[in-house]
Amino acid sequence: MPSHAPAPTLTPTLYLSTHDVAELVRRRGLENCLRAIADNLRADFLRWEAFDKSARVASHSRDGVIELMPVADAHRYAFKYVNGHPKNLQHGLPTVMAFGVLADVATGLPVLLSELTFTTALRTAAMSAVAAQALARRGSRTLALIGNGAQAEFQALAFHHLLGIDTLRLFDTDPAATAKLRRNLQGTGLRTVACRSTAEAAQGADIVTTATADKAHANLLTADMLAPGQHINAVGGDCPGKTELHADVLRQAQVFVEYAPQTRIEGDIQQLPADFPVTELWEVLAARRPGRTADSQITVFDSVGFALEDYAALRFLHDAAAELGLGERIALVPALPDPKDLFGALQSHAPRLRAAA
Questions:
Q1: Is the separation of the CB atoms in 200 and 177 below 8 Å?
Q2: pTM given for the model
Q3: How far is CA 214 from CA 128, 238, 272, 276, 316, in A?
Q4: What amino acid positions are annotated as catalytic residues?
Q5: Is residue 279 part of a domain?
Q6: 193 in Cβ contact with 168 (< 8 Å)
Q7: Do 207 and 125 meet the contact criterion of CB atoms below 8 Å apart?
Q8: Do residue 230 and residue 328 come from a single domain?
Q9: Whether residues 187 and 278 fall in one domain
Q10: In this predicted model, what pLDDT tens digit does every residue of 250-277 receive, in sequence order?
């Protein structure tokens, strides 16, 4: 009689819901999560050349954009699905929603499926702090936050914990957003100052973060608002047709980006010629090119978000969830006694499906 090899053991995919990630942050602590993601970001950016990289694939509509962001090294493949719909607030929905997958390159098996809406906010803030550690003046203590919406608390706390920022100068066209931010930051040790305009908020700030959602060519920050030595952290401009900085701000600064082929399409530098000089941040972290070269220099991190950052965040989630015993295992891929008999495996599930009906 023919012998049958035992069915291979297929480890179900680890699934992390929004509840799981919130619990992970509660148990690890927000500061520790930001630091761990920042450590992963530095480590992965220092392996820049080991990754297969591409600009994200975007599907634009009248009201927003849906994007896929892939990246891989020799061992792991990651992607994120993410949207950007500024008008969602009118429907009680977040403007940004995301989920992601971490998979094994050798087999293609999805190892992790996770929410990335909370996590994107964490990794964006951690990335801002990593860039500022490399580019801002030493001893920076005051941060201007232009745009006090969903990302603002994460930015504020990342700069507080990772750079020692102690004062926030705040402006948003919606006073309720600023009030929400000040309320959420009570007890953190941060001093908050509500301002009446972008120009007022930028006054006296060592670092200026712009984090707005409107899909429009905006000039929130103009050259006359700048002061020598400021670092500009532009995190809100992230698609064609959307900007936050006046072009003269970029012309007066040394500009740093994540991945130039993507930023030239989506970032604030889309306003400038294709040969406008920029430096990719990984080159600074690897000491291949200089970052800030003088205390009086103005630096800009034209951040649009890059898939390698999600890879670093998914690594963090996978390791932290395993350590804490969080998440559930789901059969995202069928276990097949005979890998060639997919139809038979489908039929074997049919009685269960009929019983459930």
A1: no
A2: 0.93
A3: 20, 10, 20, 25, 30
A4: 238
A5: yes
A6: yes
A7: no
A8: no
A9: yes
A10: 999 999 999 999 999 999 999 999 999 9
